[in-house]
Amino acid sequence: MRNNGQLRRYEAALLLCAIAVGWGTVWPVIKAILQDIPPLWTLVLRSAIGTATLFAISAGRRALVPPKRGDIPVVLNIALLHMVAFTGLVTVGLQFVPAGRSVVLGYTTPLWVSVGARIFLGEALTPARIAGNSIGLLGLLLLFDPSNLVWHDHTALMGNALVLGAALCWAASILHVRAHRWLSSPFELVPWQALLATCTLAPMALLFEGIPRIDWNARLVALLLYASIAGIALPYWALQTVNKNLPAITTALGLLAVPVVGVVCSSIGLGEPLNAGLIVAMLLIICGIAVGMSDAIARIGLPWRKSRSETLFDSGVPSGKTNFESWRSRQDGVNNTKSEARAKRALDEQSESSAPPHA
Question: Quick check: helix, strand or coil at residue 311?
């Protein structure tokens, strides 16, 4: 790490890999925790430990500030739609669906975001996004191949529906985040979002599941700590650091490794079958998301900068003091417009990289 706190590129890449491993491995870990703790209480305990860790990190970085009034809607949105609805539906669904299948379903979120952005935000549905959605939906159809589904197993069908519903809740959260005008940084708001989620989940767990009887042991404590710290708190902190050091699209593409890690770890740790249909469906969904982001990737690769001589030559600098001053005034206006356009492109690319986080 450099003296100014910026990471070297390889350090940022390693941190991104750690995030993918943390979020990918947490799915089978949650599946294992559910053998000893009811789903809502699993979520309450994970959220409480994660919240405490996030407050500790924020206090250590002297970044613990209350949310501004204009950011209250996004605090409510992420806390309720993502941290409560998404994680709650996934946690309940994991009781009935294999962890590997769940992580693939959960990561269909970007496909729904593309459609929702066209309907609600008026964003262009480019050929790349159409192609990406088509490929991703083909993978989803393969995952729900009617010939492979056990139609009389209503719990399995409900579990799949819950995880898919979780992906839709996450997509709705992302759409609101895209439209929100941020006053504070995302990391400054995360501890408060986690706190609100914990305060919402605790009474729900008491109401629906009562006070559970938990057989505490070292294995269960270790699983809970890992799922809370490595699955919630540290990735949120690390993702903010990575976003400052890598292009947004690079981060988004790197996070596509999460379902791959989740499927492999579920197969190794839980003994879930790694069949060809699941692998092909996963690859189609990941490829669909990558293709859908190809417009933003192409924008990053464009040669925006030219040499000074090429810029002057292309701009047609006139001769004569009066003409030059007039030309220079017009060029300043053009440069300001280009700067505003570049800033807008950067914001668009960052919003497109809202990639799917954790269970």
Answer: helix
Q: To 10 degrees, what angle do helices 248-255 and 9-33 make?
A: 30
- The pLDDT of residue 327 is 47
Could you say which DSSP state residue 67 is in? P
On the 0-12 / 13-18 / 19+ scale of CB atoms within 10 A, 80 is: middle
pLDDT 10s digits, 316-350: 434 444 444 554 555 555 555 555 555 555 555 55
209 compared with 326, residue with greater pLDDT: 209
Residue of higher predicted confidence among 57 and 289: 57
User: For residue 291, which of 115, 63, 134 has the smallest C-alpha distance?
Assistant: 134
Q: Give the CA distances from residue 128 to residues 66, 116, 121, 289, in Å, rounded to whole numbers and listed in that order.
A: 40, 16, 18, 10
Q: Return d(Cα 231, Cα 50) in angstroms, integer.
A: 8
Taking the C-alpha atoms of residue 64 and residue 8, their distance in angstroms, rounded to an integer, is 26
The rounded distance, in Å, linking the Cα atoms of 347 and 97 is: 37
Integer Cα distance of 299 and 89 in angstroms: 36
Tokens of 67: 């949310």
Sign of the Cα pseudo-torsion (128, 130, 133, 134, in order): negative
Q: How far apart are CA 266 and CA 102, in angstroms?
A: 10
Token pair in block for residue 285 = 């969904």
Q: How deeply is 127 buried, as exposed, middle or buried, from its count of CB atoms within 10 A (0-12, 13-18, 19+)?
A: exposed
Residue 198 near residue 44 (C-beta atoms within 8 A): yes
Contacts of 327 (CB under 8 A, 6+ apart): 315, 317, 318
For the chain, the domains span: 9-352
